[in-house]
Amino acid sequence: MEHTYRLVINCPDKVGIVANVSRFISEYQGWLTEASYHSDQENSWFFMRNEIKADSLSIGLREFKQAFKPIAEKYNMSWAIYDSTVRKRVVILASHASHCLMDILHRWHSEDLYCDIVGVIANHENLRSMVEWYDIPFHYVPVNKENKAEANQIILETIQKNQADTVVLARYMQIIPSDICDAYKDRMINIHHSFLPSFVGANPYKKAFDRGVKLIGATCHYVTEKLDEGPIIDQDVLRVSHRCSKDDMARQGKDVEKMVLARGLRYHLEDRVMVYGNKTVILD
């Protein structure tokens, strides 16, 4: 993996942003390997992501941050710069379904996802042996109507103890309380087995079957306290017909879920997702 710095910016749109940022990088011999921009003309807001070869810069990362401040202040930027070699620490939450979890673990194990998976928390025991085969700590936290507050506190403490940067809900079939949503705002990713905003909540394939849909899909989104209404990172669909039973839809839908979650997680790990209101801009 090439060592780069990822400069991510959003700010009010005006003339000169790209020119001044590019000039600044050039002054320190920075070599751009990727440059992505988006102008939201309706809201007059600008988004930018640049990747810079780390060894091309004549100054270090600390000096870069200090020297860049005047430009950031001039254009009222919200900005950050990330080292591509620093792996994000990921904790995964799961229930009893294995397909999304297994796909992430396989992609991580084969170095297709660049991160450190530091733990899996599940409210069922059936996935323990699979997780431990990958030499990842497995935390069993049962959740029921009587112990939800206590269980959620244990989950939060486990996430914090593992110093997670990112939390992934790999078909974790429990509602996340608002305090955890707030603590990991724009850092907690869920896969919903439906093409949101259609068929929110549980049993979407049954609802889709009853409605006679011709497309099924999956949605990867950030988690907020409003169920299934967080900023959408990625979506995809699959064509079905009247010949498909609800079980057929569920089986085919699993493939879409795995692909969409992996793609959304990759965008997040590569610092390509920029949240603006309840929408995202993906600078890919």
Quickly describe the structure.
This protein is α/β, with parallel strands linked by helices and 284 residues long. It is 33% helix and 30% strand.
Write a structural description.
The protein has 284 residues and is an alpha/beta fold. The protein has two domains: 4-83, ACT domain (Alpha-Beta Plaits); 88-282, Formyl transferase, N-terminal domain (Rossmann fold, 3-Layer(aba) Sandwich). The protein is 33% helix and 30% strand. The chain contains eight helices and 13 strands. It has helices at residues 17-27, 61-74, 99-109, 128-133, 148-161, 178-183, 204-211, 246-269; strands at residues 4-12, 32-40, 45-53, 78-83, 88-94, 115-122, 138-140, 166-169, 188-192, 215-222, 232-239, 273-276, 279-282. Strands 7-6-5-8-9-10-11 form a seven-stranded mixed sheet, sandwiched between helices. A four-stranded antiparallel sheet has the order 2-3-1-4, covered by helices on one side. Strand 2 and strand 3 (45-53) form a beta hairpin. Helix 3 (99-109) runs parallel beside helix 8. The mean pLDDT is 93.
